Amino acid sequence: MIHSLFDRAFDRAAIATPGWQGLLQLEFTQQQTRTSLSRSQMQAPLKVQRPFYPEGEGVCHVVMLNTAGGVVGGDRLSTAVHLQPATHALLTTATAGKIYRSNGKAVQQTTHIHVEAGACLEWLPQETIIFDQADYRQTMRVDLGENALWLGWDITRLGRTARGEKFLSGSWRSHTEIWQGDRLLWVDPQWVEGGSAMLTSAHGLAGCPVVGSFAIVGRSLSAAWVEQARSLWTASQVAIPPAPSSELEPTTSADPLFNVTSLSQTGVTRLISGVLCRYRGSSTLEARRWFTQVWHLLRPELLQRPGCNPRVW
User: Fold this and answer.
1) The 171-180 sheet, strands edge to edge
2) Which of 9, 202, 206, 279 has minimal CB crowding within 10 Å?
3) Within its chain, how far is the Cα of 146 from the centroid?
4) Are 181 and 232 a contacting pair, CB within 8 Å?
5) Using an 8 Å Cβ cutoff, are 169 and 195 in contact?
6) Where does residue 61 rank: exposed (0-12), middle (13-18), buried (19+ CB within 10 A)?
7) What is the distance of C-alpha 41 from the center of its chain?
8) Which region, left, alpha or beta, applies to residue 207 given φ > 0 means left and ψ of -120 to 50 means alpha?
9) Domain segments of the chain: what residues?
């Protein structure tokens, strides 16, 4: 009930306000064996919590926040992250992101990340919920130095399906590019229009309201590792029970637009210099569980570290 009142209040505010111009700039440097957040520039509603080190000084964990609680039409949010050579940072978000219905203007979110030689960035935000009638456009560019490593995921829910809301109108556009020098390693454009055939097409979302991507770029991984990642999904279907009905994840629906009783699907493919995991299904919890399992499998091999979940998860 509290969330419902808050969401309605935010919808009304979207009509009355010109939009936030949020800015977040972070720079990480190496000081002996410690990765430090050496510079941070923040402009509301974007900010970060104080860095913490659950794994020791080598990996700096940072939690990003949107103090407005969500974004609406007209908001312009810009994030820039710079990792100096040999640094290692893990960035996540405090809560799921919310993209509220549009007031006739689009939300623009731009992210530019520079990971210098020998550095590693783990970009592991919590999911984003795109409300019906939202107009959301996000772009990300990642520039990798020599022997740099990027591990990043994105999980998106189209519509508040726990309330029976469907993505009948609006637009979601996402464009990600990862470069190393003048070489494009991976590009991922996505575009879904509310109420379009893409939502039900077997070559699109096939009636599933949740999509996710997890890219590991900067290292070549063996075919055997790809098979291990695929097998984790099969094992998780047995080991992990369905989410209880108290969680905000619907389990049944007769509506063909989002047939959340359909089976979730995953895929793991090799990239030019890395691996891509895809999820299409009905549960953000399920997507993140699988991505986290893959991450725990991958970390010891690439980073010589076990998985260490951020404390806000």
Assistant:
1) 34-43, 21-31, 76-83, 107-115, 135-144, 171-180, 183-193
2) 202
3) 25
4) no
5) yes
6) buried
7) 22
8) left
9) 2-303
| Interior/surface letters 63-76, b for 16+ CB within 10 angstroms, e for the rest | bbbbebebbbbbbb
Q: What is the pTM of this model?
A: 0.86
Contact 114, 146 (CB under 8 A): no
102 - beta bridge partners? none
> Rounded to 5 degrees, what angle do the CA atoms 137, 142, 143 make?
150
Q: How many CB atoms lie within 10 A of CB 160?
A: 21
Residue 55 burial (CB < 10 Å; 0-12/13-18/19+)?
A: middle
Tokens encoding 216: 């590991």
Annotate 115-163 with DSSP letters as a single string: E-TT-EEEE-PPPEEE-TT-EEEEEEEEEE-TT-EEEEEEEEEES-GGG
One pLDDT digit (tens) per residue for the chain, 313 residues: 334 433 443 344 444 456 889 999 999 999 989 999 999 999 999 999 999 999 999 999 999 999 998 999 899 999 999 999 999 999 999 999 999 999 889 999 999 999 999 999 999 999 999 999 999 999 999 999 999 999 999 999 999 988 889 999 999 999 999 999 999 999 999 999 999 999 999 989 999 999 999 999 999 998 999 999 999 987 666 444 444 333 334 333 333 444 333 478 999 999 989 999 999 999 999 999 999 999 999 999 999 999 999 999 9
Residues 6+ apart with CB under 8 A from 134: 73, 99, 100, 101, 102, 107, 170, 171, 172
Q: How far apart are CA 183 and CA 174, in angstroms?
A: 21
